[in-house]
Write a structure and sequence with these properties.
The chain has one domain (3-113, 139-157): 3-Layer(aba) Sandwich (Rossmann fold), CATH 3.40.50. The protein is globular. Strand 3 (46-52), helix 2 (60-73) and strand 4 form a beta-alpha-beta unit. By secondary structure, it is an alpha/beta fold. It contains 5 helices and 7 strands, in the order βαββαβαββαβα. Helices cover 38% and strands 23% of the residues. The strands form 2 sheets. A 5-stranded parallel sheet has the order 2-1-3-4-5, sandwiched between helices. A two-stranded antiparallel sheet has the order 6-7. The structure holds flavin mononucleotide. Residues 9-14, 52-56, 83-86, 113-115, 120, 124, 127-128 line the site of flavin mononucleotide (FMN). Residues 9-14, 52-56, 83-86, 113-115, 120, 124, 127-128 line the site of flavin mononucleotide.
Length: 158
């Protein structure tokens, strides 16, 4: 089964998590950054998607990808992970991003999130400070969630 892990990132944390997940899977996955490549989705049998929540939405690349391809890949979508700071809202975000079209058996998780102040513009830093009180680079990415997510995929595909 040819599997693609497609991700999109603005500040780098989703890419980091995508690589960790791929390293924990018992199958080979092709990791693709949607900002770098146009992919031919017809060549894959299964998809894992990863994206950050940004202003209650996601990156332009992932939005475009979902708009163009979600209907085609729905039956092949085995897992989705989000990076987000407000982990209490992740399921609301997920439903919104996928327009309530996620298959019931799709494995999904929120890995937490991080603020990478080195990669933000001043305006973004100010918004984050005002909204969250966070003033410097801070990570609350959950290794437990990453492990559980990879284990679930391994069990499903194993
Ligand atoms: C400008 C900005 C807006 C964000 N908006 C949200 C949000 O609406 N909800 C949330 O839970 N997290 C939000 N976050 C937190 C991101 O989801 C988190 O920083 C994530 O790790 C970013 O992923 P990336 O490094 O792959 O781009 C926001 C972060 C930034 C910098």
């Amino acid at each position: 089964m040819k599997t693609a892990l497609l991700f999109s990132t603005k500040y780098g944390s989703t890419e980091k998590v995508a690589k960790q997940i791929a390293g924990k899977l018992n199958i080979n996955v092709e990791i693709v950054n949607l900002a770098d490549q146009n992919i031919d989705i017809k060549q894959y049998d299964a998809f894992i998607l990863g994206m950050p929540v940004l202003a209650e939405n996601t990156t332009i690349h992932m939005r475009r990808f979902l708009k163009q391809n979600l209907d085609f890949i729905t039956d092949k979508l085995i897992a989705v992970f989000l990076l987000c700071w407000n982990s209490q809202k992740w399921e609301v975000y997920l439903e919104k991003l996928f327009n309530n079209k996620l298959p019931k058996d799709c494995i999904s998780a929120c890995m937490g999130g991080e603020f990478n102040f080195d990669k933000m513009h001043d305006i973004e830093k100010n918004i984050i400070r005002d909204m969250t009180g966070v003033e410097k680079t801070t990570s609350k990415i959950s290794q437990t969630q990453i492990d559980e997510f990879a284990n679930k995929i391994n069990r499903r595909l194993g």
